[in-house]
Design goal:
By secondary structure, this protein is α+β, with helices and mostly antiparallel strands. It is built from one helix and three strands. The protein has one domain. It starts with a strand and ends with a helix. The structure holds zinc ion.
């Protein structure tokens, strides 16, 4: 698991491996040259990520009901 912090929007993105080309999922900037940081699978950041996905799902469910 590796993490990169986008120099453009300053948000963190994660990947299970280090791809040759890495685009920020938030602002679509090419962050392939940004420094990657290795993460342990048990890290708190990973738990934050799944919690964020949970929140996204809740938002979509609300949109569908409206
Ligand atoms: Zn970005």
């Amino acid at each position: 698991m590796v993490k990169k912090t986008c120099p453009n929007c300053n948000r963190d993105s994660f990947s299970t491996m280090l791809p040759a080309q890495w685009y920020c999922p938030y602002c679509n900037a090419d962050i392939s040259q940004a420094a990657a940081k290795a993460l342990l699978l048990s890290s708190i950041s990973l738990r934050d990520l799944s919690r964020r996905r949970e929140a996204d799902r809740n938002v979509k469910a609300e949109e569908m009901q409206a």
